[in-house]
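[User] I have long wanted to understand how a fold can be written as tokens. Those tokens are not coordinates but codes from a learned vocabulary of shapes. Could you go through the record with me and say what the backbone is doing? Thank you; the sequence and its tokens follow:
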Amino acid sequence: MIRFAATALALSLLAGTATAEPVAYDFDKSHANLAISYNHLGYSTTEGRFGDWDGTLLIDEETPSNSSVEFTIDVSSLDTFFPDRDAHLLSADFFDAEKYPQATFKSTKVEKTGDNQLEVTGDLTIKDITKPATLIVDVTSFGEHPMAKKAAAGFAVSTVLKRSDFGMDMYVPYVGDEVTVTFHAESLKSDTTN
């Protein structure tokens, strides 16, 4: 699901020194959260998170459209804070995690839509089903990290997906078809970047 998240491309909104080519940034997983939520029978909102994911982020400050992001999620790392529910969601009724262990997102377009906002479109693949997804990325901060003393960017990413688009339509419409995905994270300029 997020990929979501990865839209950190938004970082390219930075109004700093132009670069000749996209620069690699690393996600700080100790300050990041990839979360989902959905409506349960109209009575409550069920929330969860994916604890194991990885991403590749390239930011072009001068030309945001040249930025890109790829994201891979370990589906089995889903935690909705209730083990029996997790087991059901990971079963063949939903994610079928044993057969489809990863979900991925790969950006295809990055567009600046506001002073501190980007729209990142890409291909989201869950259970070997690929659908277009659009992520709204708000850049929350960009500048030198006060502790790491290197370029850093913070961002909040959100999108809404229909689980039925990915072959997970059990209990629709009673259990919500729409799943809200949010990704909050910090990233630091990669040490491998010149």
User: Anything to note?
Assistant: Confidence is low (pLDDT under 50) at residues 1-19.
